[in-house]
Design goal:
By secondary structure, the chain is of the alpha/beta class. The protein is built from four helices and five strands; from the N terminus they run ββαβαβαβα. It has a single domain, classed as STAS domain (Transcription Regulator spoIIAA).
Length: 126
Amino acid sequence: MPMTYHIDRPRSLTLFRLDDEVSFDAFKAVIERYRDEGPTKYELYDFLNFSGQIFTLTQLNDLVQLTKHHAPPRPPGSKTALVVPGPMSFGASRQYQSLAAMNELPWHTEVFKTIEAARSWLGIED
């Protein structure tokens, strides 16, 4: 499966993993399913094995709008970490981060190059 996630309710953490290629519509469908289950305070998106096409600015904005207007509220102090493999993905993820800030999403989003750095920022241990 190209995109999976695991919810760890005791730690209020959701780990998303993208393997191989995943279309924008498939990515969005997984986010909607997760949203319906009830989001957690911490989210970690592992894009390190993602080999698909980088999402367009319009698609990134669609994701921001989807989460802003249709997501159940997350607890105060919520954080989302995006872990990406290279400069192209890092740039696209920074665009998402900027869109999230401009649209005043009520959680903080950061982009990282390693899982370890993301986990440290989220304040979670293995």
